[in-house]
Amino acid sequence: MGSTDRAKSNRWASPPSGQDPSGSEAPGPPSVDRDTREEISVLIVDDEDTIRESCASVLEQEGFQIKTAHRGEEALQLLERRSFDIVLLDLYMKGVGGMKLLTACLETSPDTIVIIMTGNPSVESSLSALRAGAWDYLPKPFSSTQLHVLMGRASHAVMVAKESRQRQTSLQMEHGHGKDSEVAFIGEATGFKAALELARKVAQTDASVFLTGESGSGKEMFAQYIHTHSRRKARPMVALNCAALPETLLESEMFGHVKGAFTGAVKDKPGLLEAAHRGTLFLDELGEMSLTIQAKLLRVLQDGVVRRVGSSSTDAVVDVRFIAATNQDPLEAVESGRLRRDLYYRLRVVPIDVPPLRARMADIPVLANHFFLQYWKRHRDTGEKPPHFSDEAIRELQKRNWPGNVRELQNVMEHLVVLTEEGQEIQPEDLPHTEGGSSKGAGGLAGLTDGFLDTEYHVARDRLIAEFEQAYLERLVQESGGNMSEAARQAGVDRTTLYRLMQKHDLEKRDLMEGA
């Protein structure tokens, strides 16, 4: 670093008392109270005493926990012993430089926010630092006000990331996404194994993933699997249900807002996009997002720039991996204008279709036993001998349609845990009634005609026959393992009739086997 740069970087434009040049009190980090700041640890690394001591003095007055290092080697020793929430790091130092420290810091603690300080803020050096994982940079000389504003934003990000990790841990405990849930991914159905293998392959990349499947089929579990097996696993996976919030709240929740943006916006608030920086954002029920918000999200996908609600400038640049999901037909949503085509294809780099539970009947025994034992440990005395399923009960579970999919099976297992006795053998009559009932003869005429009585007879009859034929063919081909001769024999028809029926319903053997 030349003498001119060194002299320039020695300038501290504000007194260390926390005042700006006009003499008025510099504002603290917006919307982060002192109690929060007292929980945030900050490491300041700079070989120039004036800069290091001035930053430490100002930030200590604001309540931050401060550690300082005047050499890169000293900072490395500190980072080996503990992690910090925020690191203020000079880019140019003798010995161990800023870029090496940046890499070492993020390798040992990926959650740490690193802010680069530099007296030579060239485009090349700044971009190199940002690409290496720096959160932002602060060109020297800077005032205490500039430091406060940037630390305020960084503190927000620290706070929201911690809250997101806590929420994610709660979700994992609630929905069984911890270590015990890995067995839920055991399955022999062709379509399920294909989806899991695709998830395994894409997890190691940063490619956007688009999950489709019925409600309750496990799309969020697939998203969690992809995140926890990715190189972003040390950062949070932030989940957002786009159908759960009205448009205005969804926009504020996703992008954040500035103070005064709307009634009730009493302070600046970062959004979930900022909380997911260097992590994953899971957008569930994407088709429920308004076109206005879709357009704003598309910009983030294109250039990583986040503008909070009510802001007239860029508030953050984020690095986020996107996983989207929907229980609708995304192409139909695109054609009807409910989903932007450009957004859909941006997110659909790798599409994964999660099969429904009725296409995984062979997996019912292992899933049922897994969920039952999981809830038994949660609700009952672990010293009690758990009940077990009779063969007849398992066969009854395999007969059901499971319209609620895996989530419905979980609910049934939890119900049984609460009501069954220690060591009991669970029989079919012990199983609670479910919405889908049995797929063979359940419900009589009422179940057969449910949903058709408001339709003209001939139309209802043709529709019911078509649904029966399609469901019969799907199950027939899956049960025969794709052997069309065997399928025709089981159905009591010749192969020509079987192929004609499949052509009538626009079905192909390959598609039916993929859905198994």
What's a quick, concise take on this entry?
With 516 residues, this protein is an alpha/beta fold. It is 47% helix and 12% strand.
**CATH class category label of the largest domain:** Alpha Beta
As for the number of domains, it is 4
Q: Mean pLDDT across all residues, rounded?
A: 80
CATH architecture name of the largest domain? 3-Layer(aba) Sandwich
Number of helices: 22
Largest sheet: 5 strands, parallel
CATH H level, superfamily name of the largest domain: P-loop containing nucleotide triphosphate hydrolases
Strand percentage: 5-15%
Structural class call reads: alpha/beta
- The spatial strand order of the largest sheet comes to 2-1-3-4-5
Instruction: Give the overall shape, derived from the CA principal axes.
Output: elongated
Low-confidence stretches: 1-31, 171-183, 439-448
Q: What's the alpha carbon Rg, rounded to whole Å?
A: 29 Å
**CATH fold naming of the largest domain:** Rossmann fold
Helical residue percent band: 40-55%
The N- and C-terminal alpha carbons lie at a distance of: 65 Å
